[in-house]
Amino acid sequence: MIYLDANATTPVDPAVLEAMLPFLREHYANPSASYAAGRRVRRAIEQSRAQVAALLNARPAEITFTSGGTESINAVHASVRALWPEKPELIITGTEHAAVMESARRWQAQGGKVTTAPVHPDGRVDLDALHALVRPGVTALVSIMWANNETGVLAPMHEIVTLAHAAGALVHTDAVQAAGKIHLDVRTTPVDFLSLSGHKMHAPKGIGTLFISQRVRFAPLLVGGGQESERRGGTENVPGIIALGKAAELAGQHLADGNKARLKCMRDRFEHLIHAALPEMRIHGCPTHRLHTTSSFCLPEMDAAGMLILLDQAGIACSAGSACHTGALHASHVLEAMGVSARDAACTLRFSFNRFNTKADAEAAAHAVIESAHKMREAQGCELAVISH
Ligand code: PLP
Question: How many CB atoms are located within 10 Å of the residue 253 CB?
Fold first, then answer.
């Protein structure tokens, strides 16, 4: 299998697995225990917290471990709604992940107001429209993703923070797809909350982080034993936390050592090969503000469901849209918000690379796409011939 679905999940890095295993085998003590074994686990958790904080240029005290991106997002929305009831509004965009969309639906169901800021056809939020929408005394929170999971489009986060703060609104960013891929710095881009997820950055599933700026108050979603400085009740997922710390450290190293350029080169070669053979290919998303690891494109008249079957047979693991929605291929709300027609959306494939992919993977996948498209065309030709007879 050539795995090109990193935006759905990533393989656990062997070094991450190595780091977490002792916490499944020997170091199983409860970190709240007062004896030496418990204190040792506590120290390891705090080291992980420092590693995750370093990736974001945050302070360790600003990092809360959660069960993943979805929980972090839900926790932020619930906290802001509870602490600032006098400000009813949450602003999102139409291209957010289902976790934000559904949490926003709950915000509205509980009496709040949700406003959807428009995006340009290239997937970037319309800053002028957003500026007009954010209202002092009304908007409590602006919740906009840093990098889109379907298209890889990057948000102008700095500008978003500046205009939201000027109107007294808080800013949350779903950075699940951005973390470990681009440089994130919560000091130079002073978001108030940031969510990230372990399994999108070579740690296991079921562990994530919520960055909560020291400037803001927070009310926990889960209450219980007072863990995580009273910000998230429940005995800590110690192996997951250790894994995430190691994954964050490795992500920082990979960001620093030129791996980004290698991955971009690979993704660009992949797109170039396909475009050369199938010039009708249309790449979704802003060409200059797009994750270097994501390729989402439409091959007009090439039904994605059929292409996925052929690609699967060729040993290529990729996606037709957001993985969370696979099983039932319905139109992507992200592409719809960008003004892509339902027909083109149904002919869209997403390939997402991770640091274990090679140039050979990219080239083999491109050839498989081209071959699958030819097969589809042949099949369509046969169908047409049958109809005309
Ligand atoms: N946000 C984005 C952009 C995602 O891609 C995902 C996962 O697909 C999530 C949030 C949810 O994260 P998790 O799977 O850790 O709950």
Answer: 10
- What CATH number has the domain bearing residue 322? 3.90.1150.10
pLDDT bucket at 322, cuts 50 / 70 / 90: very low
pLDDT (tens digit per residue) in 136-170? 999 999 999 999 999 999 999 999 999 999 999 99
Q: What is the pLDDT of residues 57-105, one digit of tens each?
A: 999 999 999 999 999 999 999 999 999 999 999 999 999 999 999 999 9
Q: Closest ligand 1 atom to the C-alpha of 72?
A: 16
Query: Are 36 and 66 within one domain?
Result: yes
Query: Does 350 share its domain with 285?
Result: yes
* pTM, rounded to two decimals: 0.96
Which residues, listed in sequence order, are joined to residue 172 by a DSSP beta bridge?
A: 143, 193
Tell me: do 310 and 343 sit in the same domain. Answer: yes
Same domain? 240 vs 325 = no
Is 250 in a helix, a strand, or coil?
helix
Site to probe by mutation for ligand 1, drawn from 144, 149, 325 as the one with most ligand atoms within 8 Å of Cβ, is 149
pLDDT of 225-256, one tens digit each? 999 999 999 999 999 999 999 999 999 999 98
List all residues 6 or more positions away from 108 whose beta carbon is below 8 Å from its beta carbon.
114
Question: CATH code at 240?
Answer: 3.40.640.10
Ligand 1 interacting residues, C-beta cut-off 6 A: 68-70, 97, 99, 145, 149, 174, 176-177, 197, 208, 324
Angle 200-201-205 from CA coordinates, rounded to 5° = 55
CB 364 within 8 Å of CB 11: no
Question: Domain containing 293: what range?
Answer: 2-8+258-388
